[in-house]
């Protein structure tokens, strides 16, 4: 949507307004991936209220994950786990200056639209919550906000990236306090990347079919030695 430029602006102001009006409504993948770089090497804390969010910010967290219940309680209580209360998420956003993340159910488009409208910095399409669609994930290219997704192996990571995920994390076993699964998934991804680096184009093409990953992303991964 474009707006008429006011006639009483100086040329520099008019140019700036004209440029701003041409910003696409959906951010490019490079912009989203650049935003995700802010979280590298930092700690993301799960918080359930404003008080915890402020403590996390003061303690040096790079971001907070706004949740109604921490993963341990979600696993213990069972039932259907949905997105958090939008009011609580909004209160946390207004209270802290660090990025705020929120989880949505896998495949739940409406939850993602609601979370995006709140102004969060990142959306986590999370396996911790009850999946809304076991077959299809959200098309993350349709959103301005960068998405974070979990993976257990290289094929899953590249499929999520192909869907528009700007950042990949290992899944692990949320809520157990046991990090061995997360370490296992991390080592699996790194080992499969090293394996891909040793392959020629024809081998990569076959390997892409084996792990059900897009060939162009697998080829880029092999070239870079990391996820694209």
UniProtKB/TrEMBL annotation:
PROSITE patterns according to UniProt: PDXS_SNZ_2 (PS51129)
Superkingdom of the source species: Eukaryota
EC number, as in UniProt: 4.3.3.6
InterPro entries: Aldolase_TIM, PdxS/SNZ, PdxS/SNZ_N, RibuloseP-bd_barrel
Biological process terms in GO annotation: amino acid metabolic process; pyridoxal phosphate biosynthetic process; pyridoxine biosynthetic process
Residue spans crossing the bilayer: none
Keyword Chaperone: no
Pathway the protein takes part in: Cofactor biosynthesis; pyridoxal 5'-phosphate biosynthesis
PdxS/SNZ N-terminal domain location: 29-228
Protein name per the record: pyridoxal 5'-phosphate synthase (glutamine hydrolyzing)
Organism: Mortierella alpina
Gene it is expressed from: SNZ1_3
